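Late entry, evening session. Most of the bench is empty. Finally got around to the prediction I had been postponing all week. Sequence below, unchanged from the version circulated by S.P.
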Amino acid sequence: MLREVWLNIGIEKLDTHEGITVKVLLDSGATGIFMDKRAVAKHGFTLQKLERPIKVRNVDGTNNSGGAITHQVEVNVYYKSHVERIRIDVCDLGKTEVILEIPWLQAHNPEINWETGEVKMTRCPPLCSRTKSRGVKKGKRVVTLEEEKMVKWAVDNKKDWGREEEIEKNYRKIEELVPRKFLK
């Protein structure tokens, strides 16, 4: 059985719409979404300065050698048919490029096969989008031109991040996932 799950995801820079593929660790012990400082510099992400630094502690409780988190990046994330805009804190992660953590895992509640490492994004919250071959469907909201460009980039121009495994029958409406008392 696997003790950790790694995914290849697409990350798009918001300013240039340039896309890269990164290896991501799903970490149920982490308390934030993190990107390594070296990966940020290597790929030329635009940094956003935080109002206050955030102390970073390693798994063993010691202070992170890279110091406090002082910046973050905002990106579009693509995995299979999952599309999402997130902010990622920038810190020293060593050899790991990106870590997705507990709140992200709780919000998306992905189906994880711990024997094979397969991850399916079938229970995402309504803020996430699901790509289709002809555009994005996000509830009953009208899709913006920028979102259509984002989907076209992911579907037509970049590496396949496992979308071929997604099948239409796995797509469920929010009304099927959320108890009725919360829909009103």
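Two things to note before I forget:
The radius of gyration is 17 Å.
Residues 131-143, 157-170 have pLDDT under 50 and may be disordered.
Will write this up properly tomorrow.
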